[in-house]
DNA sequence: CTAATTCCTAGTAAATCGATAGAATTAATA
DNA sequence: TATTAATTCTATCGATTTACTAGGAATTAG
């Protein structure tokens, strides 16, 4: 399941993607437009900025705008940024790999094999969902 | 991600599936065999019993045994029993549906459409992973 | 200088998670 | 029938995470 943070991030990105190019959106504008608690959204936008999905202009008349093409922002990336691993267990994860402490020998962990299969399919599906693909609906 | 409960449940089911037919496994035996905290495993086995995956015999020489074919126990079912929805948001879930409080009109929620697509693919993949398919490795 | 905005750091209440404790219940068998 | 070994049930605990909120510092346009 997605955290609220991840959901709000996606909604905020969708909002930004729907604006005219060169338009700068204030936090409050996004919060109202996408129904997101404003102070919470502030943090989320900062995270998106650190992740180089958006950039900002400070001070009066400042705000946020996309710096990554909406075709290149995938659900998989947003999931990873806010909720971490896409795999069902860390031992089956590409980006957040950690061995299981309770598995005696990993090569023999039959569960892991199955979970890596799931991971590959889920990942592929999530990489196919882009902000652009969602906006055009 | 799977909770420890779900992971332990899968490991316990794998353990049971590997035993001879008609063999009854005590909790402590499963706990040792699959490296699961015994008291925690107790709860998990009760959950699996309520879910009609296993049954138990009480008293001396009691224990647990599979009552569902290993071909019919899927990762999807275990995920649902212990961790709930497979979809990324409740509004995109089949079995745990709930509307989003922050979406103005659901039909217009472009995010939901994408998440239902992911759900279908993930679900299909998870239904393909059975205890039997994991044991034979 | 002032107003409007992002940026930063804490804090907090509630829920969830992983696990433990202990007593009640059940059943085999000596 | 008493003993013993097992499941079953209920309650609780501490740590972590989640979803926010609060307050103010820094920045910028006019």
UniProtKB/TrEMBL annotation, chains A, B:
Matching InterPro entries: Tscrpt_reg_Rrf2, WH-like_DNA-bd_sf, WH_DNA-bd_sf
Disulfide bond among keywords: no
Keyword Cell membrane: no
Tree of life domain: Bacteria
Keywords: DNA-binding
Entries under NCBIfam families matching the protein: rrf2_super (TIGR00738)
Protein's UniProt name: Rrf2 family transcriptional regulator
Organism, scientific name: Flavobacterium soyae
Lineage, uppermost ranks: Bacteria, Pseudomonadati, Bacteroidota, Flavobacteriia, Flavobacteriales
């Amino acid at each position: 399941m997605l955290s609220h943070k991840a959901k709000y991030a996606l909604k905020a990105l969708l909002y930004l993607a729907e604006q005219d190019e060169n338009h700068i959106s204030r936090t409050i504008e996004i919060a109202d437009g996408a129904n997101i608690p404003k102070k919470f959204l502030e943090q989320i936008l900062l995270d998106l900025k650190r992740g180089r999905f958006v950039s900002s202009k400070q001070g009066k008349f400042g705000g946020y705008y996309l710096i990554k093409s909406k075709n290149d922002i995938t659900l998989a990336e947003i999931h990873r940024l806010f909720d971490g691993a896409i795999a069902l267990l860390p031992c089956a994860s590409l980006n957040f790999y950690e061995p299981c402490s309770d598995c005696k020998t990993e090569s023999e962990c039959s569960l892991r094999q199955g979970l890596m299969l799931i991971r590959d399919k889920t990942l592929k599906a999530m990489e196919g969902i882009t902000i652009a693909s969602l906006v055009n609906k």
